[in-house]
Amino acid sequence: MLWIAAVAVVLVGQARAEEVDLPPERWPLTVTDAVKDIVGRMTPENKAIVKNTSKSDLIMFHHGWGTSIRNYYGLRRGNRKLVDSACHKPCHPDDASMVIIEAVWTELQK
Predict the structure, then answer these.
(1) Where are the alpha helices (DSSP H) in the chain?
(2) pLDDT by residue (tens digit) across 87-110?
(3) C-alpha angle with apex 38: 98 to 91, nearest 5 degrees?
């Protein structure tokens, strides 16, 4: 269980160290674009951590990494297009961020 906390800290730290929350004019509008951005900014170590996490355990990233995704990409600040892209309809930003996390995981499985 300790490694789960460490992973969340690493992923959140990476997101925070890179840049403040994106301004609206730079928000990705699709899950595909968000995934490209996230994977492009991940360290090899973080890619390995996410890749080697079972899909059913991705929920452990909800509060740390998921919060960073929600904040960085404006899911709670009006980025409705990305939320709708994630859920294919209006949904809660928490749900949209989990879809994005799962999409990152899927991309890393390739």
Answers:
(1) 2-18, 31-41, 44-51, 65-72, 80-87, 93-108
(2) 999 999 999 999 999 999 999 999
(3) 30
- Range of the structural domain that residue 88 is part of: 2-108
The phi-psi region of residue 60 (left if phi > 0; otherwise alpha if psi is between -120 and 50; otherwise beta) is: alpha
> Do residues 42 and 70 touch, judged by C-beta distance below 8 A?
no
Structural domain tally of the chain?
1
CA dist., res. 22 & res. 56, Å (int): 29
CA distance 54 to 60: 11
pLDDT digit string, tens, across residues 40-74: 999 999 999 999 999 999 999 999 999 999 999 99
The answer to whether the beta carbons of residues 48 and 105 sit under 8 Å apart is no
Name, in order, each residue with C-beta under 8 angstroms of 13's C-beta and a sequence gap of 6 or more: none
